[in-house]
Amino acid sequence: MRAGRPADCLESAHMVTPSIADIFRARLLQKPYLSPTPLASYPLLDRSTGMSVLVKHENLQPTGAFKVRGGITLLGGMDPRERARGVVGYSTGNHAQSLAYAAARFGAPCTIVMPQDSNPVKTAAVRRLGADLVEFGATFDEARVHAEELAVARGMRLVSAGDEPDLIAGVATAYLEIFEQEPELDVVVVPVGGGSGAAAACLVASVVRPECRVVAVQSRRSPAAHDSWHAGRCLRRPNETGAEGLATGSGFELPQSLMRKYLADFVLVDDEEIRAAQWALIRDARTVAEAAGAAPLAALPALRESVGGGRVAVVVSGGNVSEAELRACVRASVSEGGAVA
Q: Which of 47, 70, 205, 315 is disulfide-compatible with 167, CB 3.0–4.6 A?
């Protein structure tokens, strides 16, 4: 952290805003490893939401989440000597899988710190990919501090979960695909934990489709990114959501700076609304989404008036659902009706 910056701003030592050229370079780095994901419409989903909805299926990535785009870009673009030292990451799961997947592809040592009692689907995947998994602390923020210590002790490159230009450039390729698949899109709704996805969406939309509004969504039980954006500075907030992909307790300066410049709106949803949206995606789009991946759909009722008759894309950022989460979602659908609207 740079001297003189507020303690609530989580920041890496390499704060450079990525450009559209960086995003195209990221696409070239990804090409041997990743394929475009579908942007699909579902009549039943349109009917249940009362909107024209397109679903971006990042749940179909090799790791089950959009973060893999960033991992491939970062590891693929590293100096070989730095890559040989290895990387240390901290995550609630999808960022962890991204780094582990990319490290395996490029032959780099990889250590991942995840909170204890993390999603078992994600921890098992990290281990299968060959990373050294360290489970530490009860929250994302406690895992982050331990990762910082391990990176120093092991002489490895710490990879921030938010303040990494290469990660933002990497995940931005998803939004290039979205606008290629639907050039006349009016709104994109993006889930936010650290904010790399929303920042990436903002960067791409500002260049290729400035008329498109980018809207971010986070859980009301972990509102650090939301509150940081509204306040215009990084803040710390309680981190209590069950949606691990949205569970951060502090804002990250790089994505926040991009969101402050370009983001149209930032809304909060309840965990119960997210659970209903998970069921709606299963019922109406035959899509299994983890909680963070369903959050954009959960935000649509709050956006209905501003969206009007426009075309809206919701980014299903991941599909790494634990058995317990899936069972809870189905039980809730029976007792609550599973409605999004």
A: 70
Cβ(228)–Cβ(268) under 8 Å? no
DSSP secondary structure letters along 97-129:
HHHHHHHHHHT--EEEEE-TT--HHHHHHHHHT
Active site residue 67: yes
Helices 165-181, 196-208: axis angle to 10 degrees equals 50
Q: How far are the Cα atoms of 75, 169, 178, 237 from residue 102, in angstroms, in the given order?
A: 6, 15, 23, 31
Catalytic residue among 67, 98, 222, 250: 67
- HSE-up of residue 94 (Cα within 13 Å, Cβ side): 37
Cα 54 from Cα 174, distance rounded (Å): 14
pTM of the model: 0.92
Asked if 20-65+165-336 and 68-159 have one fold, the answer is: yes
Domain borders along the chain are: 20-65+165-336, 68-159
Confirm if 293 and 245 have CB atoms less than 8 A apart.
yes
Query: How far apart, in whole angstroms, are the C-alpha atoms of residue 2 and residue 278?
Result: 40
- Assigned CATH topology for domain 68-159: Rossmann fold (3.40.50)
Domain 20-65+165-336 classification at class level: alpha beta
> Can you tell me which residue has the tokens 């790399």?
196
Q: Report whether 262 contacts 241 (CB < 8 A).
A: no
pLDDT string in tens for the chain (341-residue length)? 233 333 445 444 447 899 999 999 999 999 999 999 999 999 999 999 999 999 999 999 999 999 999 999 999 999 999 999 999 999 988 999 999 999 999 999 999 999 999 999 999 999 999 999 999 999 999 999 999 999 999 999 999 988 999 999 999 999 999 999 999 999 999 999 999 999 999 999 999 999 999 999 999 999 999 999 999 999 999 999 999 999 999 999 999 999 999 999 999 999 999 999 999 999 999 999 999 999 999 999 999 998 888 999 999 999 999 888 888 888 877 665 555 65
Which one from 196, 219, 317, 333 is the annotated catalytic residue? Answer: 317
